Amino acid sequence: MNRQNKETRPYLDENISVEDFLDFYWLKVELQDFCRKKGMQTSGAKTEIAERIIHYLKTGELSQAAKSKKAPAYPEKRKKAASMSLETVIEANFKCTQEHREFFKRVIGPKFHFSVALQNYLKANAGKTYQDVVDHYYQLEEDKKKGKRTTISGQFEYNTFIRAYFDDSANKGKSLQDAISAWKEVRSRRGDNVYRSASEAE
C-alpha cells in the first residue's frame, strides 16, 4: 500500500496507505461503508471504527473486535429492558439502545436524549448505577442553563471547528454557511482539521 504523492483527497479502499488514511478527514458514513464491504462491524464511535480500519490496512486482517456480530433476538432485548431499574449497574461497553432510551424516558421524561456528554459519561463510568446516570443528566441540564460549555469529544472535529470559527472575532457577522465552507476547504486538504485564525495560518 503506497502513499499517494498528491494533496487531493484519495479514495477510501483497501489500497489506501495508513498514512493517507490518517492525513485526511473521513465522514463516519464513509468509514462504515468501508467496514460493511469488508464484513466488519459498523457500530460504535467514529474513533472505534477508524481503529478497525487502521488494523485492517496494516495487517490485511480483521481484528476479533471488528468482525460483524449477529444481533441478539428481539424478545431477549425486550426482556432486558423490562428488568432495568435505577439500581441497574452501567455495563462495560455501554450501548445506547432503544430499550435504554425508553427506560430513561420513563424516569426522566419525554425530552430525554443521549447527548454526547452523557454518552461519554456512560462509557467512562462502568460500575456506577443508572441512578448516577439520571443525576448526571440533571447536572448537565443545569450546566446548560448556566451557559457552561461542554467539552467536545475529539472525534467530533466538525463541531470543534465550527465552534472555534465563531469564537474568532475576525468572523463576527459571518454565517453558518461561511463556517461550513471554511470547514469543507480545510477537510479537503492533507493534515489535521483544526481551525486556525488568519494570523495563525501565516
Structural commentary:
Helix 6 (116-124) runs antiparallel to helix 7. The protein is mainly alpha-helical and 202 residues long. The protein has helices at residues 18-23, 28-37, 46-59, 74-82, 98-108, 116-124, 130-145, 157-167, 176-187, 198-201. The protein has 3 domains: 18-66, no CATH class; 88-145; 157-201, no CATH class. It is flat and about 55 Å long. Helix content is 50%, strand content 0%. The protein contains 10 helices and no strands. It starts with 17 loop residues before the first helix and ends with a helix.
- Count, helices: 10
Poorly predicted parts: 1-5
Residue fraction in strands: under 5%
Q: Which outline best applies?
A: flat
Beginning-to-end CA distance, first to last residue: 34 Å
H and E string = HHHHHHHHHH
Organism: Oceanobacillus oncorhynchi
InterPro entries: DUF6434, SAP_dom, SAP_dom_sf
Domain SAP: 23-57
Protein name: SAP domain-containing protein
Brief digest:
The protein is mostly helical. Helices cover 50% and strands 0% of the residues.
What is the topological layout?
Layout: H1 18-23, H2 28-37, H3 46-59, H4 74-82, H5 98-108, H6 116-124, H7 130-145, H8 157-167, H9 176-187, H10 198-201
Protein name: SAP domain-containing protein
Organism: Oceanobacillus oncorhynchi
InterPro entries: DUF6434, SAP_dom, SAP_dom_sf
